[in-house]
Design goal:
Strand content: 5-15%
Largest sheet: 6 strands, antiparallel
Number of strands: 14
Helix content: 40-55%
Distance between the termini: 46 Å
Number of helices: 17
C-alpha cells in the first residue's frame, strides 16, 4: 500500500513543547492554583469591607482567578484540564458571575487548548499502528483539536476515507492519575474558602473511571455500538470506527460546527439543537446500552445537514439494561411535590430508602430541584440564573455526595446518571433555551412513569 500524500510541516513556533512533569511538580502546580484562587478571594472579601467600590475589587479578583484557571488547566493537559472541562458544563455552580468572567474562562477550556507538537505525538502513532503506519495513514501533523488526554488530527486512511485521528498524549496516564489525586485534595480544601465551588465530587468520579478513559480499544467498542444503534438516524450522527490500537483511535471524519456556536443562532435553532442534545442523553443507554458520560459541548457538533453529531466516547458507562429506574422514580417523587409522608412512602416503595429509615426530605428537595422543577412542566425555560438559584437554596445541595447523610440507597449507575443529567442541564442553561421536559422524561426515562424506556 502507498500513501496518497504526505504533509510535511515544521512544528508550530507558537506552541511550546510540553514535557512530562513529575507527579510532584504537577501536584504542586495544581495546589498553587487552588491556593491562589482561595487566597485572592479571601483577600478581596476583607479589602471590600474598607473600599469605596467593593464591586470593582470583586470584578478584578474574578478576572485574575479566571485567567489563572484558564492558563494553568489549559496548559497542563491530563486530569487538570479534564476536570476543568467537566466543570465548564455546570459553570452556574461557581460563585455569582454577573460579568461572565468564569464562564468565558471555562468555555475556553473546551475548544482552545494548545496541542502538542508533532515530534511528541508521532511516536505514539508508531507504537500503536506499527513502524509502517505511514502506509496506512496520511495525516496532517498540525492538530485540529486538543483535549485533556489527547489531540485530534485530520487525515486520509489508505482506502481514501477522510478520518479523524485521536492520539493520546504520551504522558497521559501518569499525568491523569497524579492530577486527579492533587485536585481531589486541593479542591476540597478550597471549598471551605470558596463556598459554592462544586468541583471535588466531579474529580472523585473522574478518578474512579480514569482507566477506562485511557483505553482507546474500550472506547472504540463503545463508539462502534453507539454508531450502529444510531445508523441511518435523521437526527443524530455518530462517526464509525476505522481502526483502534493502544493510544490511537481512527474514526470517520464528522464535519460540523461546535455545539457552543449554537449560542449565537436564532432562538428557534438553539431550542431545536438543545432538544436533540437533551434527548440523546436519555436515548443512548436504551438504544445502544451506553451512557455518554462527558456532556461538555466540545463533544458535540451540528452537522451541515442539521443533525447533532456526537464524538469522543472515552468517558462512557455500560448500561446494557438502559438507565436505572431508581433515578426516574426519584425525579418523579419530587416533581409531583408529594407531601412529606407521601414522598417518604414513594422512596421506600421505589427501593431508594430502607423501611424504617427516615431521610432529610427538605434537603433532598433542594438537591433534587434542578431535576424535579423542569420535570413538572411540559416546556421549561433553562437559564444560568435559574440553575444558580437552585444551588443557593440549601448548603447540602453543594455536594452531590449527599446519599450517605440522607439515608438513600442508590446504585452507582444512579449517581453517574445524576451527574451526567446535571451536566446536560448546565449546557441547556448556558444556551438559554425552552425545551420539552416532562413528555421527554415520560417517554425515555425508566421509572418516571412506572414503565421502562423504549
Amino acid at each position: 500500500m502507498t500513501v496518497t500524500r504526505w504533509i510535511r510541516s515544521a512544528p508550530r513556533a507558537d506552541v511550546p513543547p510540553l514535557r512530562q512533569r513529575s507527579a510532584t511538580l504537577r501536584s504542586a502546580r495544581i495546589a498553587g492554583l487552588v491556593a491562589g484562587l482561595a487566597a485572592r478571594s479571601s483577600l478581596t472579601a476583607v479589602r471590600g469591607r474598607f473600599d469605596d467600590d467593593p464591586a470593582r475589587l470583586r470584578r478584578r479578583a474574578r478576572a485574575r482567578n479566571a485567567d489563572a484557571l484558564r492558563t494553568t488547566l489549559g496548559g497542563m493537559k491530563g486530569g487538570a484540564l479534564k476536570a476543568g472541562q467537566l466543570l465548564s458544563t455546570v459553570d452556574s455552580l461557581f460563585p455569582p458571575d454577573p460579568d461572565r468572567t468564569w464562564t468565558e474562562a471555562l468555555t475556553a477550556l473546551q475548544e482552545t487548548n494548545e496541542p502538542l507538537d508533532w515530534a511528541q505525538v508521532e511516536p505514539v502513532l508508531r507504537r500503536g499502528l506499527g513502524a509502517r503506519w505511514r502506509e496506512l495513514l496520511d495525516i496532517d501533523p498540525v492538530a485540529v483539536a486538543a483535549a485533556s488526554l489527547g489531540q485530534v488530527h485530520r487525515g486520509v486512511w489508505h482506502d481514501g476515507q477522510q478520518v479523524a485521528v485521536k492520539v493520546q498524549y504520551p504522558f497521559a496516564t501518569a499525568a491523569l492519575l497524579a492530577d486527579l489525586r492533587a485536585l481531589s485534595v486541593s479542591l476540597r480544601l478550597a471549598g471551605v474558602v470558596l463556598p459554592g465551588l462544586l468541583a471535588a465530587p466531579v474529580v472523585d468520579e473522574l478518578r474512579r473511571r480514569a482507566g477506562e478513559e485511557l483505553d482507546y480499544v474500550h472506547e472504540a467498542r463503545a463508539q462502534r455500538e453507539v454508531a450502529a444503534a444510531f445508523a441511518g438516524s435523521t437526527e443524530y450522527a455518530v462517526p464509525g470506527v476505522v481502526a483502534a490500537a493502544e493510544g490511537v483511535l481512527v474514526s470517520q471524519w464528522l464535519p460540523g460546527r461546535p455545539l457552543v456556536t449554537v449560542a449565537d443562532d436564532t432562538r428557534d435553532e438553539r431550542c431545536r439543537v438543545a432538544s436533540l442534545y437533551q434527548r440523546f442523553a436519555l436515548l443512548a443507554p436504551s438504544r445502544a446500552g451506553w451512557l455518554h458520560a462527558d456532556p461538555h459541548p466540545g463533544n458535540f457538533r451540528v452537522t451541515p445537514d442539521g443533525r447533532l453529531g456526537v464524538v469522543d466516547f472515552g468517558a462512557v458507562v455500560a448500561m446494557p439494561d438502559g438507565l436505572p429506574p431508581a433515578f426516574g422514580r426519584l425525579v418523579r417523587a419530587f416533581a409531583d411535590e408529594s407531601a412529606p409522608g407521601d414522598a417518604q412512602t414513594a422512596l421506600v416503595a421505589a427501593g431508594l430508602v430502607r423501611p424504617g429509615r427516615r431521610v432529610d426530605l427538605d434537603s433532598l428537595r433542594a438537591v433534587m430541584s434542578p431535576f424535579s422543577e423542569p420535570a413538572r412542566h411540559d416546556m421549561f425555560a433553562f437559564s444560568s440564573s435559574w440553575l444558580r438559584s437552585c444551588f443557593a437554596r440549601d448548603d447540602a445541595s453543594r455536594d452531590p455526595d449527599y446519599t450517605a447523610a440522607m439515608g438513600l440507597t442508590l446504585p452507582a449507575e444512579h449517581l453517574m446518571t445524576q451527574r451526567v443529567w446535571l451536566g446536560v442541564i448546565g449546557v441547556l442553561c448556558r444556551l438559554d433555551v425552552t425545551v420539552p421536559v416532562r413528555p421527554v422524561l415520560a417517554e425515555l426515562l425508566p421509572g418516571f412513569d412506572g414503565t421502562a424506556a423504549p
